[in-house]
């Protein structure tokens, strides 16, 4: 009904405004993996990386392409608003009910989960695109089962959006293949491989090691947020490994009680769900929850550690909490149906209280998601040094090394909030930045073999001039608690010294040769996936006009 759709869009606009209110300020939100820049270069090493693990393939390619048409500050705002908006409307339309009130419970509940809050603060907007696409993806898969016209192109487009990151692609593939009728599994499997081919090909042809450091299993394990323990945190869709990106409200002693009520309400509503939706989607959701739970106890950690250590590509299982994503949707849908079932047994006024109370109950699980996580996502401006250095290195292309060696940095101008090194995306030249992580004093080795060699050179006291890099970028003064090793700058020419950045040129560097042929398989896979999505979008648009 038109009334229901309008109400869902109004709810989506309200939720997006409440969560993303700080984005009304100018600048960029820089938080952990979210490091948008004014204009991200369309560089081969960025869109088709060979040395780095393909965690942002083809996400970086998509951003670089769109940046040709709009600045980074605008793109960031459009993406974040679209994520919240699509999540809210999608869940509201997916829940199997005729009640607008129940639709609004599902819509608002899915737009206000601890999962969304924690991943947003961690800056994993690529994974949140898959989160927002999931209700629509499930709906398209169900329409395909029912052989409704137009379902196939919608499925392909949503699969492609989800596969902008490897984790999102894997989750979307599992959901689609679980919901697909057996006779269509080969066709859907082919679409899954096509849209996921960019990061799959990058992993196959790249130089980075396919084996991740098994120390990351324990470091990235789901953790307890309160007295309820890690499992209760996961049941409430929280439990992310990073304490800094966990809203303070998750430590409240009331959270386990609220979680228990929502889970019980969802179990009460599952009876309605199982009559209206194939049981294979709940099976995928529970399986994802079980994978996340494995990292919370000894035998599970041992099993995951063995997999990561012995199976190429199994490093995707390290941050297992992300696989709670399908469960988050199932929990919200079932809780909404549980509220509907409970309200149907009550008079009109108490029934309205139950429906309203369910919405408030879900929002109380993470009230400080409002205003960008209680102000954590307030935009900042890049200091002028960044643009000055970008222009200088652009005049003489060559590989740049970002020092001190650290993948994530804290800047005073970013209110000391941790962010992925912006140099990788801000500078118009290839940038080497360390991919070794430190999580609670645990050192998790990266996969970039070239960075391991540079780290070894610095550790042995060799100057950077002996490495094959043209530029050395020193991030100083604005960086908190970091320093460059003594003697590292011996033999380098000072080009720019500013309050935040210093740039040095290596006169001994050999002109690097670009080998497009090595990047070609990845670029070809990205083009194929993009064409498939464009074709799907064109088909959807053509159907809508008829």
UniProtKB/TrEMBL annotation:
Keywords of the record, alphabetical order, are:
Membrane, Transmembrane, Transmembrane helix
TM annotation in the entry: 74-95, 116-137, 157-180, 187-206, 251-270, 282-308, 320-339, 351-377, 522-544
**What's the domain of life for this entry?**
Bacteria
Instruction: Name it.
Output: Uncharacterized protein
Organism of provenance? Rhizocola hellebori
């Amino acid at each position: 009904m038109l009334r229901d759709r309008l109400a869902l869009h109004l709810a989506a606009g309200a939720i997006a405004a409440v969560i993303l209110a700080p984005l009304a300020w100018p600048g960029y939100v820089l938080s952990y993996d979210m490091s948008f820049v004014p204009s991200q270069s369309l560089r081969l090493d960025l869109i088709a990386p060979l040395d780095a693990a393909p965690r942002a393939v083809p996400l970086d390619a998509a951003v670089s392409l769109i940046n040709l048409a709009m600045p980074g500050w605008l793109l960031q705002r459009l993406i974040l608003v679209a994520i919240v908006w699509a999540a809210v409307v999608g869940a509201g339309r997916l829940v199997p009910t005729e009640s607008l009130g129940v639709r609004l419970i599902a819509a608002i509940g899915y737009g206000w989960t601890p999962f969304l809050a924690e991943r947003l603060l961690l800056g994993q907007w690529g994974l949140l695109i898959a989160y927002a696409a999931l209700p629509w993806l499930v709906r398209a898969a169900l329409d395909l089962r029912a052989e409704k016209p137009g379902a196939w192109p919608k499925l392909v487009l949503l699969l492609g959006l989800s596969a902008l990151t490897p984790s999102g692609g894997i989750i979307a593939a599992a959901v689609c293949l679980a919901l697909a009728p057996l006779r269509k599994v080969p066709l859907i499997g082919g679409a899954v491989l096509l849209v996921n081919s960019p990061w799959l090909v990058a992993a196959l042809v790249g130089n980075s090691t396919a084996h991740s450091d098994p120390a990351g299993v324990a470091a990235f394990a789901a953790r307890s947020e309160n007295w309820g323990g890690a499992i209760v945190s996961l049941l409430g869709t929280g439990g992310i490994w990073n304490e800094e990106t966990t809203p303070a409200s998750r430590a409240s002693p009331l959270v386990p009680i609220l979680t228990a009520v929502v889970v019980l309400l969802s179990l009460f509503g599952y009876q309605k769900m199982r009559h209206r939706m194939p049981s294979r989607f709940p099976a995928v959701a529970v399986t994802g929850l079980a994978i996340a739970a494995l990292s919370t106890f000894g035998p599970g950690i041992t099993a995951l550690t063995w997999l990561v250590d012995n199976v190429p590509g199994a490093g995707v299982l390290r941050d297992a909490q992300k696989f709670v994503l399908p469960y988050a949707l199932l929990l919200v849908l079932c809780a909404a149906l549980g509220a509907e079932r409970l309200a149907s047994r009550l008079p009109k006024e108490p029934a309205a209280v139950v429906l309203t109370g369910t919405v408030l109950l879900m929002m109380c699980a993470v009230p400080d998601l409002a205003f960008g996580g209680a102000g954590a996502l307030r935009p900042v401006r890049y200091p002028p040094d960044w643009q000055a250095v970008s222009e200088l290195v652009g005049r003489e292309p060559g590989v740049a090394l970002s020092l001190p060696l650290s993948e994530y940095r804290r800047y005073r101008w970013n209110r000391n909030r941790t962010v992925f090194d912006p140099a990788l995306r801000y500078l118009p030249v290839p940038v080497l930045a360390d991919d070794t992580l430190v999580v609670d004093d645990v050192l998790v080795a990266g996969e970039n073999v070239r960075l391991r060699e540079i780290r070894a050179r610095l550790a042995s006291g060799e100057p950077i001039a002996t490495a094959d890099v043209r530029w050395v970028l020193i991030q100083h003064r604005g960086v908190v608690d970091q320093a460059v090793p003594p003697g590292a700058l011996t033999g380098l020419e000072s080009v720019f010294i500013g309050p935040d950045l210093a740039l040095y040129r290596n006169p001994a560097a050999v002109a690097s040769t670009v080998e497009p042929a090595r990047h070609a398989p990845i670029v070809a896979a990205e083009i194929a996936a993009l064409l498939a999505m464009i074709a799907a979008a064109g088909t959807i648009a053509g159907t809508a006009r008829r």
